[in-house]
Amino acid sequence: MDPPYWQTAGYGVDFPFEEYQRMADFMRRCKGKVMVSINDHPDIRRAFDGFHFEYLDIRYTNTNQRQGKAEITGELVILNWLPDQLGQLF
């Protein structure tokens, strides 16, 4: 799943925090493997407590930035399974 980042602007859609809590609940009940890509925020870490977290540095660029400049931000990949079950995904 790739939901809107929590507490960021620019998506133009209403996505209340309860939606993240619903995703975490779904992941707890799901019999299959689920992966979520989301911004690293303490609220998100609390909502998805108990799952496996992988932290990645992601470099973003957009047309509003000067050429050659990129913002580096933290990205969480949240799994309801352990990556070594698939030969170390990360």
Can you tell me about this structure?
This protein is an alpha+beta fold and 90 residues long. It is 21% helix and 26% strand. The protein has helices spanning 17-29, 42-47, and strands at residues 35-39, 52-60, 71-79. The protein has a three-stranded antiparallel beta sheet, with no helix packed on it. The radius of gyration is 15 Å and the shape is globular.
Task: Offer a concise description of the structure.
With 90 residues, the protein is an alpha+beta fold. Helix content is 21%, strand content 26%. It has helices at 17-29, 42-47; strands at 35-39, 52-60, 71-79.
Task: Name the descriptors.
90 residues; alpha+beta; globular
Helices, strands, pairings?
Layout: H1 17-29, E1 35-39, H2 42-47, E2 52-60, E3 71-79
Antiparallel strand pairs: 1-3, 2-3
Largest sheet: 3 strands, antiparallel
User: Treating each run of at least 4 consecutive H or I residues as one helix, how many helices?
Assistant: 2
Give the CA-CA distance, first to last residue.
17 Å
Helix content range: 10-25%
Number of strands: 3
Order of helices and strands: HEHEE
Principal-axes shape call = globular
What is the CA-atom radius of gyration, in angstroms? 15 Å
Share of residues in strands: 25-35%
Regions with pLDDT < 50 over 5+ consecutive residues?
none
The secondary structure category is alpha+beta
Average pLDDT: 85
Strand order of the largest sheet: 1-3-2
